[in-house]
Specification:
With about 110 residues, the chain is α+β, with helices and mostly antiparallel strands. It contains 5 helices and 5 strands; from the N terminus they run ααβββαββαα.
């Protein structure tokens, strides 16, 4: 009787272990198919003139947000910042991520 209980318990543990949800990962290239990668280290993509800052973690969630919020349909120059877990920032009319990161170089060129 005890042997049967041990076998059933072991079988249940094995079934749960084999069927549990495994986390799947995607690459930066899969977040927006056809997008140009600007920075692999920072997770910056460009698609149809719009720059997407997706970061380097939880790319599957970022892809879901981009599709769900129709962020691929933006017109004109914009920067979409998806690095944070609780917010999406859309900056309309932004020129480029390089100018946002290095404003002193941009100001010296404008003078």
């Amino acid at each position: 009787m005890i042997a049967i209980a041990i076998i059933i318990t072991t079988a249940l543990i094995l079934i749960v272990y084999l069927t549990k949800h495994r986390e799947s990962y995607i690459t930066l290239e899969e977040v927006i198919p056809g997008a140009r990668i600007i920075s692999q280290e920072e997770g910056v993509l460009e698609y149809k003139g719009v720059q997407y800052i997706v970061g380097t973690h939880d790319l599957k969630k970022r892809k879901y947000l981009i599709e769900r919020l129709n962020l691929l349909d933006l017109k004109g120059q914009s920067i979409v910042d998806l690095r944070f877990d609780t917010q999406v920032i859309v900056k309309r009319g932004a020129t480029s991520m390089k100018e946002k990161l290095n404003p002193e170089k941009t100001q010296s060129r404008r003078r």
